[in-house]
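Chapter review: from sequence to fold.
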Amino acid sequence: MSDTAATAPLAGMRIVEVSSFVAVPLAGMTLGQLGAEVVRVDPIGGAADYHRWPLTEGGESIYWASLNKGKRSVAVDFRDPDAQALIADLVVEAGVLVTNVAGRDWLDFAALAARRPDLVHVQLVGRADGGTAVDYTVNAATGFPLASGPVDVAGPVNHLLPAWDVSAGLYVALAVLAAVHRRNTTGAGARIVVPLEDVALATIGNLGYLAEAQLGGAGRERIGTAVYGTFGTDVVTSDGVRFMLVALTPRHFRDLTELTGCTAAVAAVEAALGVDFRDEGTRFRHREVLSGLIRAWFREHTAAEAAAALAASSVLHERYRTFAEVAADPKVTANPMFARLDQPRIGPHLAPGLPMSVDGRHHTPRPAPANGDDTAAVLAEHLGLDAARIAELHSRGAVRVAAPTEVTGPA
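The token string follows.
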């Protein structure tokens, strides 16, 4: 363990993760980046996400490697009773389990807590009633796809970001920290269940969307790139570059009209309509006419000219970028959150650590393991299995040891 890892906020905490896909792997990685030792246990050959896109030309999952940085990998046959017992032993020894696996008796809270009463057991499920769900099915039920997209689109528009998985993963990490804090003060364990669907429902409720509907508000309409309740619009420059503009305050809007030379025209519209554009709701209601006035200036100026003018103003703005452009941007290449990572099987690239600094330092990302890379070391270190026992388990397929000839353990 590096000096930085030894002094990280969660140094000394051990977590067993039995998971797949986004939410729980993100939770485990986040806790690991804060200093916890995270042991991910998978079936031999990898779980359902081990070869998920995007892939390298050689078929290795960039996705999997990116969400499992810094973890240790144990690979076992989930159908083998001895392997199931080993997983249970690891959980009991660590004292913290994060999982999205259901229907496995050997991961059941009651059975594990009978062996370790202060166990922290955090499980992500699809729905609170036990039903299955994934981010994209949950999203369909939130209302967002029918309120997203251009105004002239009739069908749903799904976003690319697995927002509910990401939110749920951070809730899972928060749940672990809250439960461990309580354990440290009271000695009590915890069984915490986080339904993915409830994460989405809580979020749209916390943002006021559900209350708005319950109180008789008008249904949310499609507004394209506009920003609900205030003024925001996209513009295109003479050389085809697109920017997003947001004017939240009267000053923002005043600077935008001055920059685009349409202050007099906007004042004439105000007078004709008998409205006051210092009010953001009024700017939203009349967004189409205001956007038309503002876009005219951008059509006559290049992206460089627009960027310089916007930078000299208070207007909130950003140029639309592709993923490739973001990867080459100084926001990535010169950002201390990113560091060069020589990821086996994937290749060297800039990878992010935590999106925060701790005591003025950023976490340095560590490579993700391959399936079973750490099986032998974890079983020896944490369960005290000797080399002969580990080799026997490997030889009959109960576990996968990456390099069985190098297995070492207690004498």
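Two observations follow directly from the output. The chain has two domains: 3-205+333-406, 242-319. Residues 242-319 form one domain.
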